Amino acid sequence: MLTRLASTSHEELYRVDDPETGLRGFIALHSTRLGPAAGGLRMRVYDGDAAAIDDVLNLSRGMSYKNAAAGLPLGGGKAVIMGDPARDKTPALLRAMGRAIEALQGRYWTAEDMGMAPDDMAEIARETRFVAGLDHGQHASGDPSPITAKGVFNAMRAGAAEVFGSDDLRSRHVAVQGLGHVGWHLCRLLHEAGAHLSVADMNAGRVANAVSEFGACAVAPEQIHATEADIFAPCAVGGILNARTIPEIRARLVVGAANNQLAMPEDGDALHARGILYLPDYVANGGGIINVAAEILRITDSGPWVAERLDAMQATMTQILNRAKGEGLSPAPIADRMIEDQLLQVAV
Ligand code: NAD
């Protein structure tokens, strides 16, 4: 079921195949330097194996950086399943993925990501011990999305202080792309803080709900990045900050939950050149993995533990923004450099 593939950039890369259940996917362990590789399981349609491998390699590398930025004793890993979650996801397929994860003997811990829900994690847990984000069980941490949203919200306040001179989000106009698990919670926090919302999602029902619940303004998905707003919050797919979209962005601050928002590393510089402050995604969206880590690390009183680490993550973001300002650079390369230095200091 697991076939090891060669990789020069990652510690381990596997193809996962189970013809009986239709499972096709990949698992990548980028680094176990800080601890077991941890990172979510994503299910989506890919344009072939190469696209899925690219995604799992990028995402798992991102997890090494994210876990380090969140101050966790965890390395970086990720898994992807190729398929449409609405059509192809079955209990048997999820259990097959669970068996593949179990075969890695704890070197990789999985959790929820795009296309997955807590119930799916429970199905996977029938076959493996190395799954977190469960609703039930002694250390169950549940859906990480509300904590992810809280971390993004905190980061947004730090960014607002930098760009607008105040971290108060009241009356700020935020364009949110994606009203899924994280986007929805983020909208609620922003609404409660008095922000105005423009929203987009491929799912018209979610948009209609946001319009009625938060008084949000509906925007076409292909236009949301270009909304005349103060802040753009990508909470859907990666690669949204690219050569085509960056010239059209009208917000002065970009911060959201989506992983790998920059299509290319240079896109961070392109945003900086346009005077747009981009907050590194893997620092802003680390709340979810902090919540999941409490389960992996078997923390008993997890509430205060999680809150403490969210505060530390916020302090790290502020430190990155200060350094970026001092050096006149985009926060993206500054964050990378800080984390790479941190990883290098750990003995192999
Ligand atoms: P989700 O699957 O629950 O929601 C994604 C939403 O985006 C869906 O409603 C989908 O219809 C919408 N969408 C997809 N393509 C779109 C497009 N082009 N325009 C507008 N909407 C679009 O996923 P989620 O858990 O909310 O995660 C969102 C992003 O945040 C992902 O990139 C994920 O990797 C990242 N993330 C999530 C967590 C977490 O705790 N769930 C933690 C860290 C990072």
UniProtKB/TrEMBL annotation:
NAD(+) binds at residues 178-183. One of its GO terms (biological process) is amino acid metabolic process. The active site is at residue 78. Pfam families: ELFV_dehydrog, ELFV_dehydrog_N. One of its GO terms (molecular function) is nucleotide binding. CDD domains: NAD_bind_Leu_Phe_Val_DH (cd01075). The keyword Hydrolase does not apply. Signal peptide: none annotated. InterPro entries: Aminoacid_DH-like_N_sf, Glu/Leu/Phe/Val/Trp_DH, Glu/Leu/Phe/Val/Trp_DH_C, Glu/Leu/Phe/Val/Trp_DH_dimer, Glu/Leu/Phe/Val_DH_AS, Glu/Phe/Leu/Val/Trp_DH_bac/arc, NAD(P)-bd_dom_sf. Keywords: NAD, Nucleotide-binding, Oxidoreductase. Residues 142-346 form the Glutamate/phenylalanine/leucine/valine/L-tryptophan dehydrogenase C-terminal domain. Belongs to the Glu/Leu/Phe/Val dehydrogenases family. This is Leucine dehydrogenase. It comes from Roseovarius lutimaris.
